[in-house]
């Protein structure tokens, strides 16, 4: 009984600490600025080419005729347009592959800042292509913009996961998904005929890319680097403490420093691992499989198919074709609202329920949509049911599968493994993106409205895997998450610690001594082998 008041007092103190560290000004500004010049641009470039598609194809035809004296045939024009759209994913794959050495050399924050060079260069190429009479400039700009997206979609979640307290790591991580949705919605709005959706104005859609890039390039340098990166990879305790103090909004960050040092002692080393080393580590085998499954399902769950059918379904519902672009804005609005709701509830409900529930809801609505599309010519009100299903599928996706895969990739791996893990996740993401763009027309031609059953099957497979394999990561440290996978990986905790760096001959005591001597002085004095 005597311990009860003390226990209550400790609980109040802990709650007070949580409230104090939750959302500092620097933390909010870093997340918003980082996302504005990164995931926002990714979403924007997914939708920005849709509205001016007819004008751009006309530009391609006129350029071809001016050069060769005859109009381009329909097959070549379709090929050029397909390359313009899909080449974005190839650039993204390149960006995902090169991100590991970049974040190691520049750090997380500086990578985001330097990455704006790609965005500005791409914006200039695409916006000036009409003036220069060169459609090659537009295609090249799409490739470079893809590289920017590939880098940012790995560096941003990495940065956010490392600067946020574990109590709000999920909510802050959802900023990536929220800004992707805002970017898609912004592209839809700016593409309206009253704004830039006109033949003479479509280049301004690409000029607009420069604005968020410049905002990020101006503001982000004044915010701290990831304190985990500073402490574990740069071995600079002084800068790491200052970064923690700014992000957490408090002076005493000894607990956070010790938590990071505890992670380093478990790893026994802070040397970054390569992809090959990571794939050979038994201690992270199921973490890698989980990331591959979630990222694969993120792209293959059928949302791209929904965008393909949207205009046709709206038209079948009796909506005037001139009005459809405005009605389509409802999809972007629902997407954004669902992503925001996910960010608000993720720390209460956890990652598992949102992921599994999101995929589960998509299965149900895909099934209903298949029935309604198949029978829509027999029952007059079924097209309206199809619209409801489309909005429900988009909402289900954005509540869970749309953002949590990025959060999980940052949570399932230790500091030294994270860059390689994000490279694997990014590669799967962009390859899947490219595969959907390449294969979906054939799937749709062969199965017609039944193509949605394929995506329902993918969602079912993903939900089943996550139900049996994924532990809840809410409010857990990175060490606790690793320990949750230890049994499934069939390794003891000691084996798990040693497995981080197989073949290292140095004793853990010597390594820990070297690490401590370097961080205590705020600079690297001894190398860690």
SSE layout and pairing:
Blueprint lengths: L2 H19 L3 H12 L2 H9 L5 H16 L5 H33 L1 H7 L1 H17 L2 H29 L5 H5 L1 H16 L12 H5 L2 H10 L7 H7 L3 H12 L5 H14 L7 H6 L4 H16 L2 H14 L7 H26 L1 H25 L6 H18 L4 H8 L6 H30 L3 H19 L8 H9 L6 H7 L8 H13 L9
Helix pairs in contact: 2-10, 3-8, 3-10, 5-6, 5-8, 5-23, 6-8, 7-8, 7-12, 8-22, 8-23, 10-19, 13-14, 17-22, 17-23, 17-24, 18-19, 18-21, 19-20, 19-21, 20-21, 20-24
Fold and architecture overview:
The radius of gyration is 24 Å and the shape is globular. Helix content is 76%, strand content 0%. The chain folds into 2 domains: 23-223, MFS general substrate transporter like domains (Growth Hormone, Chain: A), CATH 1.20.1250; 276-499, Up-down Bundle (Growth Hormone, Chain: A). With 529 residues, it is mainly α. The model is unreliable at 1-21, 500-518 and 521-529 (pLDDT under 50).
Output the keywords.
single chain; mainly alpha; Growth Hormone, Chain: A; 2 domains; MFS_sugar_transport-like; MFS_trans_sf
